[in-house]
Design goal:
Number of helices: 4
Oligomer: single chain
Structural class: mainly alpha
Order of helices and strands: HHHH
Distance between the termini: 23 Å
Radius of gyration: 18 Å
Shape: elongated
Largest sheet: none
Number of strands: 0
């Protein structure tokens, strides 16, 4: 019960705002990358932006998948895909914290926000896996 409540809280407070912000900035990043490739200028930056977009969206999709697994108490799910998505999303968040201009506090709060969901969902999924793997108590 607490896991479902915490999953819903994280979904509402972290996933929804992160997804909406990612949608907006993904559109801007995609426009920059396509324009840079078309003009044949700043192609290295365009490739970096595209790789961050792909890795970031892998992370967001993995967070939403973990949310639905925990909120609906599913027993069968692909942990490998979720862990890969968590890794890609975390790497992109850390990369953005390190590379974008601005104060470290702002970057940490703005780009590190999804890392809270990764940490919480990792702990909940590990506990969920051990409960699913444990044999049912015999009566």
């Amino acid at each position: 019960m607490r896991t479902k409540l915490l999953a819903h809280l994280i979904g509402f407070m972290v996933l929804v705002p992160s997804t909406l912000v990612a949608l907006f900035y993904s559109a801007l990043g995609l426009m920059f990358a396509l324009d840079s490739i078309q003009r044949q200028e700043h192609q290295g930056n365009a490739v970096l932006v595209l790789s961050c977009l792909v890795g970031g969206w892998l992370g967001i999709v993995a967070l939403w998948r973990a949310y639905f697994v925990l909120a609906t108490d599913q027993r069968t799910f692909s942990t490998t895909r979720i862990w890969i998505g968590f890794g890609c999303g975390s790497l992109v968040s850390l990369m953005l914290i390190g590379m974008v201009n601005g104060s470290l506090l702002f970057r940490g709060l703005f780009f590190g926000w999804p890392l809270l969901a990764v940490v919480a969902f990792t702990a909940m999924l590990l506990r969920h896996d051990t409960r699913a793997a444990a044999p049912a108590p015999s009566a």
